[in-house]
Amino acid sequence: EDQVTQSPEALRLQEGESSSLNCSYTVSGLRGLFWYRQDPGKGPEFLFTLYSAGEEKEKERLKATLTKKESFLHITAPKPEDSATYLCAVQAGSSNTGKLIFGQGTTLQVKP
Amino acid sequence: SQTIHQWPATLVQPVGSPLSLECTVEGTSNPNLYWYRQAAGRGLQLLFYSVGIGQISSEVPQNLSASRPQDRQFILSSKKLLLSDSGFYLCAWRVRGSYEQYFGPGTRLTVT
Fold first, then answer.
1. Which of A23, A58, A61, B37 is most buried (most C-beta within 10 Å)?
2. Which residue of B has its CA nearest to A47?
């Protein structure tokens, strides 16, 4: 069964304290791994797509990496405005319809 | 540029009442459309997806139904709401041939 597990569930950081969020996946033939940011009461905002092991993507203070079993979202020198829930999702190779399987998310709080 | 709309933004309905949530996409043609539900503290669960007008596939058997009367319109309905239907409902779209899904602002449904 295709599955996505994110850890930790919650993370508290001081402003400027770098850290990483983990997304472990089990999927039959990965077509893509996606990272989203979700603010309270809003829809998820697309951040990155990773397609193959070794790939990396960067956006401002965020950097996403991918291995054959997991992905990391590295947050460098975070600011309070980076506080949000970060969602990881995968699309399996068996899916032609774009179905995404989501993890439970990591809620990040950055204190000034 | 593409835009996705959902309405209403919030809804409080009694048990047993009907439901109609609407999603429209602008700036693209023939998108794949998706309905997700996000329960409190849980990940996103795919409910329905559509690859074209009148074409609906259900992922989870439940009290809900979906319809796509126009190319860029996707509707989620119920004849009689249950307490368990409460949640945050998200519509998403995807350009055919690409992998990324983009989400709308969501509808918060509370069934009382």
1. A23
2. B100
Give the pairing of strands A84-92 and A106-111. antiparallel
In this predicted structure, what is the pLDDT of residue B61?
66
All residues of chain A having their beta carbon less than 8 Å from the beta carbon of residue B58 are none
The model's pLDDT over B49-71, given as tens digits with 9 standing for 90+, comes to 999 999 999 988 678 999 999 99
Q: Looking up tokens 């204190």, which residue turns up?
A: A111
Q: Tell me the residue type at B58.
A: S
Among A32, A4, A23, which residue's Cα sits nearest to residue A95? A32
Q: What is the pLDDT of residue B68?
A: 97
* Cβ–Cβ pairs < 8 A, chains A and B: 56
Give all strands (DSSP E) within B1-112, no chain letters: 3-7, 10-13, 19-26, 32-38, 44-52, 55-58, 65-70, 73-78, 87-94, 102-103, 107-111
CB contacts of A46 in chain B (<8 Å) are 100-103
